[in-house]
Amino acid sequence: MSQRIEKNGLQVDAELAEFIDEKALPGSGVKPEDFWQGFSSLAHDFAPRNNELLAIRQTIQGQIDDWHIVREGQALDGADYKAFLREIGYLVDEGLEFEIETANVDPEIALVPGPQLVVPITNARFALNAANARWGSLYDAFYGTDAMGSLPPAGGYDRGHGARVVARSRVFLDQAFPIENTSHADARRYYVDKGALLIDDEPLKDPSQFVGYTGHPKGPDSILLRNNGLHVQLVFDRAHPIGSRDQALLADVRLESAVSAIMDCEDSVACVDAEDKVLAYSNWLGLMQGNLESTFQKGGQSMTRRLNDDISYTAADGSDATMKGRALLWVRNVGHLMTNPAILLKDGSEVYEGLMDAMITTLIAIHDLKRDSGNSVHGSVYIVKPKMHGPEEVAFTNEIFAHVEDTLGLPRDTVKVGIMDEERRTTVNLKECIRAAKSRVAFINTGFLDRTGDEIHTSMEAGPFSRKDFIKRKQWIGAYENQNVDIGLECGFSGKAQIGKGMWAMPDKMAAMIEQKIEHPKSGANCAWVPSPTAATLHALHYHAVDVMAVQAKLKAGGRRAYVQSILDIPLAAYRAWTPAQIQREIENNAQGILGYVVRWIDQGVGCSKVPDINDVGLMEDRATCRISSQALANWLHHDVVTQDQVMDTMRKMAEVVDGQNADDPKYRPMAPDFSGVAFQAACDLVFKGREQPSGYTEPVLHRRRLELKAQRNH
Question: I want to staple 654 with a disulfide (CB 3.0 to 4.6 A). Which of 177, 408, 591, 620 is the partner?
Answer without folding.
Answer: 591
